[in-house]
Design goal:
Strands 2-1-3-4-5 form a five-stranded parallel β-sheet, sandwiched between helices. The longest helix has 16 residues. The protein is built from eight helices and twelve strands. The chain is an alpha/beta fold and 243 residues long.
Length: 243
């Protein structure tokens, strides 16, 4: 059975600016998030209280009830602990202090960089789920230190390119599950997808470092589908699933 990677998250977007809402929907849904949208404060407050979300993206200036009041009601009255990322054009220190004081977990000033917003969302979802990334990834005798990005196999330090390290990190986190080619390409290159041979070339170079010097290979190809990284000494794996 092929298992997919964990779902990125369920987001509530409370934003009355149509163009910003459409831009966020297109970008975040492309990353795998699911979104609900409210264009005014009352609707947003109702959804936030009655539904379950991983993160709430909350505009400050809203019709009906403004974002500051929504934030206060969620924290003080509804006892809602869902992380809140506040969006606003107000950029003074006092505005930021007021937003965080009202209960927001993070504060992003418009206009914002969409990749920065995505990175902040990802971190907030991880914290909310309690999914804190370990400092060291290990599969068999292969280890990757996430703080220093230094990899070792059987105690031997490996010289891996930056792209190779990104791919290796994905494979190790998913191991022994399969990762689809499209998932790796999206995580490594984002929207600017490479040609069909680029990923194959990086996997080839990664194999030369991870597998070739050792007796047992760890990186396996599932033809026309994707890749998985397996501990060669794990007897629970099914050798017929890998090629």
């Amino acid at each position: 059975m092929i298992l997919s990677l964990p779902h990125p998250g369920h987001i509530l977007l409370i934003e009355d600016h149509r163009e910003i809402a459409e831009m966020l929907f297109e970008y975040l849904e492309g990353l795998g998030y699911t979104l609900d949208h409210a264009g005014d404060g009352l609707t947003g407050l109702h959804l936030a209280i009655t539904q379950t979300y991983d993160v709430i993206i909350l505009d400050l200036m809203l019709p009906g009830i403004d974002g500051m009041e929504i934030c206060q009601k969620l924290r003080q009255e509804a006892r809602c602990s869902t992380p809140i990322l506040m969006l606003t054009a107000r950029d003074t220190m006092q505005d930021k202090i007021a937003g965080l004081g009202a209960g927001a977990d993070d504060y992003l000033v418009k206009p914002f960089d969409i990749e920065e917003l995505s990175a902040r969302l990802k971190a907030m979802v991880r914290r909310h789920r309690g999914d804190l990334t370990p400092a060291l990834l290990k599969v068999g005798d292969l280890a990757l230190d996430l703080a220093t990005l230094r990899a070792r196999r059987a105690g031997i330090e490996l010289d891996i390119t930056p792209i190779g390290l990104k791919i290796l990190k994905l494979l190790m986190r998913a191991s022994p599950r399969l990762i689809l080619r499209s998932e790796i390409e999206r995580e490594v290159w984002g929207d600017e997808l490479p040609d069909s041979d680029t990923l194959r070339s990086h996997i080839y170079n990664l194999r030369k470092v991870i597998d070739k010097p050792f007796s047992d290979p760890m990186i396996h190809t599932v033809q026309s589908t994707g890749y998985r990284l397996l501990d060669p000494h794990d007897r629970r794996k099914n050798p017929q699933q890998a090629c």
